[in-house]
Every structure is written in structure tokens, then in C-alpha cells.
Amino acid sequence: MQTQMSCSAAIHALISGASPKTYGASGIVPASVDFIRAIGGAGGITLSLTEAIYATADPCFPTALYQTYFAVRVDAGAGPVIFNDLSGALFNGGPSWTMNNRYQWAIFVWNGVGWDVMAN
Hints:
Helix content: under 10%
Strand order of the largest sheet: 1-3-7-10-11
Oligomer: single chain
Radius of gyration: 15 Å
Largest sheet: 5 strands, mixed
Number of domains: 1
Number of strands: 11
Distance between the termini: 24 Å
Strand content: 35-45%
Order of helices and strands: EEEEEEEEEEE
């Protein structure tokens, strides 16, 4: 098994693991969070992702790390979990990304102008 380096560019590159945080209310997700555990509940929540690009100071490849979040919805509530960007950046061409089902997951990668999303 390989060790997964932290996906957050805000965390030291030699530290491995994840920085999980559970969100049950709307808010801003800081760049220091790697793994989002979202609870939509009955009314739903909106989470705003933080755009980030960090220089590696490496003369070789890669010269920059782009912010990445892993997210999973952990409840079966009726309310949606909505991800957005306070600057208005798009998610695969749309204004936001929504999770409606328990154990639905997504990986969000900042590409410099918007969020690339890989999800189930």
C-alpha cells in the first residue's frame, strides 16, 4: 500500500495523512482541510471551497500544487449538500455541485480558473 501525501497544498509536503472535518452547517472550507464529511440534515447546507495554488519551490516538476478536496455525504437527510465558490468559479461548467444521497462522494480539484469534479 502506498502512503497518500496530504492533498492540501497548505500542509507541509512531508507529512502524510488526511485532515478531515465534519460540516453540519453552512460555511467556508479552509485550504487546510483535505477531507470533508458533510451532513445535509433536513434543511441542507452550503459549503464554499477555498481556491489555492502553492508554489513548491522545486526546480523540477511539479512547480505548483493545486488545492484538492475529498468530500463525502455521511447522512441520509432530505436537505442537499451544495458546494460553491465565493468568487463565482464553476464546477465542471456549472455554478455549484450538489450531493443529495448518503455516501455520495466527490473529489474537487482547483485548476486555476474553476473546479474539476470527479464524483459518483
